[in-house]
Amino acid sequence: xxxxxxxxxxxxxxxxxDIRLKTLTSQLKTASVVALDTEADSFHHYRPQVCLIQxxxxxxTSIVDPLAALDITGFLKELAKKELIIHDxxxxxxxxxxxxxxxxxxxxxxxxxxxALSGLPNVGLSSLLEQVVGLxxxxxxxxxxxxxxxxxxxxxxxxxxxxxxxxxxxxxxxxKLHKLGRSDWHxxxxxxxxxxxxxxxxxxxxxxxxxIKGTGTLSFKVMAFVRxxxxxxxxxxxxxxxxxxxxxxxxxIIKLADWAARKKTPIDSARHLPFRxxxxxxxxxxxxxxxxxxxxxxxxxxxxxxxPSKRLSKTIRNTVNDLKAECEKIADELGLSMQWIASRAxxxxxxxxxxxxxxxxxxxxxxxxxxxxxxxxxxQQILG
Length: 384
Known about the structure:
flat, two-stranded parallel sheet, single chain, 6-stranded mixed β-sheet
């Protein structure tokens, strides 16, 4: 194992025109395995988009700039045919699908899942680069605005490092999985990650989408102001394509709501508001506050609505706790984190459905096959 070092200059090609992209696509046809990563601007914008696509294959690294008015259809079509090495594939595949309709057709090797199933305590890419390659990657670039042009050489170097060593990391982790007899676990987990990335996001619940952290202890009157100001912020974010927290933070919304709820007289001027949002839209903010101020107690939001069918009896809760304790023993023996074996929600469904065979668990799609087989002794011990 080499000692950690600072990142050296990485050789890469920046693709910003169709001629160079056509050449890259032609070169891609001879490759069988491609390391892939993306950079998006989700931290800075309401509607995130893929801003860079990094690929490494046959010892060559390229960074494709989709914001450079390129026709990347042919490139993505060829890329979809390859076996892909991706770290935390779910995020990149969701972004690629949302931006371009991209779907891989020849399998994915997820290095994050491989690290987790190998029992490594730190599964982040920067940790793997340091542990496997001996490369100390910069972490302060993770929140960079990748939509800005031109990109600095430093940021491009950072982006290139995300794929150039993935094949080396894959080889290291693949050997560990094979030695532990967990290669099948990883293959199934990667298939599920790819399938999950292809599922469209469920519509948000209007009764809960505005309930930001910290609202659970507020009075219904204060929550009415939170709701109206939250929808004001969401409208501005959508209109300006700015990330909501950059307009005003959740703590500012709660502070404003608490202040407004205490007012006994109508709030008639934006100058009286306790903070100014980063986006100059005081008039609309004042209107939202005034709307909340005019609501009657019957129009205030109440407690979060719960599904009666999901209220568990004490007996069920105790059984789930017992099952979780037995599964944690299995996880400890394997040197794995419990989160990779079964979530509490999955264990609850197993108890509620009295699913005591792998066939029953698989039929209801509660766990993957390897997970079900792994904890089956615990299930049968607790549920009989």
